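Lecture notes, unit on protein representations.

Consider one protein chain, 267 amino acids long.
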Amino acid sequence: MFRVIETLHGANFVVEIVAEAILRCSLNYGDPYIGSVLLLAHFDGTDGSTTFLDASPYHNTLTGVGNAEITTGDFKFGGGSLLLENHAINGDNVGLSNVNFGQLSPTNTSPYTIELWALFNSTGILQYLITQTAGLGSRHFAMYQDGDDEITWHTSSNLSAWTHEFKTSGANIVTGQFYSIILDKDSTGTVRIYVDGVMYAKQTPANSAINTTNGTQLVIIGSHGVLNADSFDGCIDEVRVTAGISRYGDLNGDTSFTPPSSSFPET
């Protein structure tokens, strides 16, 4: 396209036009770290569907337990989210098989990012967002709400006990709205919890590695891994786990930022 910036009247009434070219282009940015994404679940689909897909390069098999289903009534992006309502032993959740989470954080300086959107129907209860744990002797990580309105994070470097634990202060999560919840370990070993782009907790533990002997353990979205217990009460949307990359900590540190405003890209 050209824009006229000057017109000149020359001899014999010839109009000379001076113009400049304007380049217009539309760029569609994908995810430069898609090759490092271990899990990408949009939880889109028809209302009531029990089919859950992983759009990461690993295409993990996702299997629902209990009444876990897609709802189109509440969602952050894409038209659907994961609905979990049975907060009980053997409650609702979605499990991942064929997992490759052994590479999530093999060393103290191995960065990673775990992020999701969550709408809480209840607070003040013990409810898990995402875990990989089968009890003593088989612990890896857990993100959950521990009977309050905050977010707690546990990791284990030795399988037998939680070796790193901390929680937010001041997040003050309420029911009925979606929150961006991000757990980010940067390249220096500092681990942060961001809620809606605000850093509410951070630690730099002596050992933040996550034990890599995963065996056949499932990663569970929405409950504790050992008994499918303490299920999340609400909706979970846009779950993404990235190994080897600090998507927010290395870039923003303790500074607030605007959380993602659309579905996570698949390429």
